Amino acid sequence: MGVEPVRRCPAGHWGRIGPRRVHGCLLLPALVLAMLFSPGPALLAAPNPVYMHQPDAPAAATGEPSVTASAGTAAPGAEPPVLTIATWGGAYEQAQRAALFEPFTARTGIEIRVAEYDGGLTELRARHADGGVTWDLVDMTMSDTLTACREGLLRPLPQDDLPPSPEGAPAHRDFIPGALTRCGIAHTAYATVIAYDRRAFPGIRPERVADLFDLERFPGRRALQEAPFGNLEWALHAYGVPTADLYRLLSTRRGLRLALAKLDAVAHQVTWWQDGATPARLLEHGEVVMASGYNGRFFAAMADRGAPIEILWDGQIQELENWTITAGSRHPAAALRFIRWATGTDALTRFARHLPYGPARRSASRRVAGHVGTGIDMQPHLPTHPSNDRNAIVKDVQWYARTHDRIRAIFRRWLRARAPTPVLRPDQ
Predict the structure, then answer these.
(1) What is the pLDDT of residue 351?
(2) 59-189+320-381 maps to which CATH number?
(3) Measured between alpha carbons, how far is 154 from 152 in angstroms, rounded to an integer?
(4) Any residues with CB less than 8 A from the CB of 122 and at least 6 apart, and which?
(5) Mean pLDDT of all residues belonging to the chain
(6) What's the CATH architecture for 31-51+191-318+389-424?
């Protein structure tokens, strides 16, 4: 694909840069922009030049047992096992119960218990270290999947007998690029987005990532995730940094300083959240005017409760979500059976009719129709829909996997230095 030349827009806007659009005013003079992109000392691992998800190292690298197609099947007449699945709660868990868990139990007799999980690897590492792993499966982001796999926290998964599409296409062709990795089978593409309360801005409304940081034009509290992911990318994006350069710049001390400086400007107006259900609730109740969060959670608040929320698709950050099996799973064969079923075309289509996350199979994406409760056409609400995908940031999961602990430590130190700022825990 050819790269369009940069053209100058009125009032200092940038035009099209490369194959994606970058919106927003560049408030910095040309000299500062030159400093932005000048070489700086590398602080973190260099970003992966291809931001789509890449297969990990060979399975033998961890020494953990893999899951085979025939191992561990229940003996005839034996009680079916009970699977414990760690997943994200709220509207997301409700959709999984209706679209996946209950139909799977009805079909197989294998009961599913749900454990609370809010992302990250802290709890899984602790459970693995003391031998107290009770989770069989974890619904895990791609970046966490790659890190956990390298640390031996997950079992390598076979991929050669995943079901084909209804049209007969083999699984490796039906799944979207990067969906199949050593320890994970992707099921959906979700987006972390910025949303706002329509009541707070009856006139001019936010349209771009830079508006998140503009307290003068769009005053009021923000709700942001208590994590580096999303915040760092958007901070640089707000300066006008092209999408293709975000992770290269974040790999330098200069880039991180610039990102944190941008966050400094709004930190006194930020409520930090941990639980994925919190941002939609804060917007719905008028406690904040803008928030980061997951596109499916915001949609659920709008569709189910009529919440006055609008999603800002500019700068949405896409990532694949995976089914994984823990290294300490007591029922790996039953867990694999669930994954094969839950990543089939019918199951993925059914889930996307509850929440608008893009199915990881092409055959399922083509079949997504109306919302099960309201009949709303779900296609325009998928993060992968062409109208929403024009200025998306594809999360560089390899970069995050390599910098997992260091980037979080840097962000935590910065956040502690800005205390006291409210942090809402999952039970608040």
Answers:
(1) 98
(2) 3.40.190.10
(3) 6
(4) none
(5) 86
(6) 3-Layer(aba) Sandwich (3.40)
Please list the residue range(s) of the chain that carry CATH number 3.40.190.10.
31-51+191-318+389-424, 59-189+320-381
Q: Is the pLDDT confidence value at 7 over 70?
A: no
pLDDT tens digits for range 154-191 = 999 999 999 999 999 999 999 999 999 999 999 999 99
What string of DSSP letters covers 265-277? TTGGGEEEE-STT
Alpha helix (H) residue ranges in 140-287: 142-150, 171-174, 231-239, 246-250, 253-264, 278-284
Q: 424 - beta bridge partners?
A: 273
**Distances 103 to 300, 305, 316, 336, 380 between C-alpha atoms, Å:** 21, 26, 32, 16, 27
Burial category of 196 from C-beta neighbours within 10 Å (exposed 0-12, middle 13-18, buried 19 and up): buried
Q: What average pLDDT does this structure show over 16-44?
A: 41
16 has pLDDT over 90: no
Nearest to 39 by CA among 239, 252, 262: 252
Token reading at 218: 């769009």
